[in-house]
Amino acid sequence: MPLIIGLTGGIASGKTTVANLFHEHFGIDIVDADIVAREVVEIGSEGLNSIALHFGDDILSEDGSLNRAKLREIIFSNPEEKQWLNNLLHPLIRNKIQQDLASISSPYGFLVAPLLIENNMQEMVDRILVVDVSSEEQVNRTVIRDNVTSEQVEAILKSQVSRELRLSQADDVIENHTKNQKLLPQITELHQKYLAIELENRSK
User: What residues does ATP bind to (predicted)?
Assistant: First the structure.
């Protein structure tokens, strides 16, 4: 398997932007944990069938898809049900991520995972790249992007690991503090670095 980089960062740090720039400019394959999490509960999936069996058909929308709002409502007020759901979905998500990583064909690849550290996914990657941004910037961006209050964003920030802990886990860091931060030079430099590491790994 090629070199796998875990790309993470707090809310509104610019993870998706960074991943897309690596893909658009250098053709690097991306596995997105959030997309995988949606795929494992698609219509007809083992995940969705198990959820419907456990919670009843009321958990489904009219078209047979998962009613996420209703599910969130249930698990928000019931820690045991939340634990049951996590026990079901986490293995399914990890297995699908492993399958997708195994099919990467670019010289190295990314696993984009906002909760990489929170969900202890470090063993799935060779290096960790953190997109770093100040908490003030995170609040400002999320309020504008999601039309939510700053208090709601603060609550989300508290549910994620601290900026300091995330940076302590990083092998590489991209700084994205301001709107005009130049991302491409940082990305180009890291691209060259990852190619060199992959080359060295293959020659061992």
Answer: 12-17
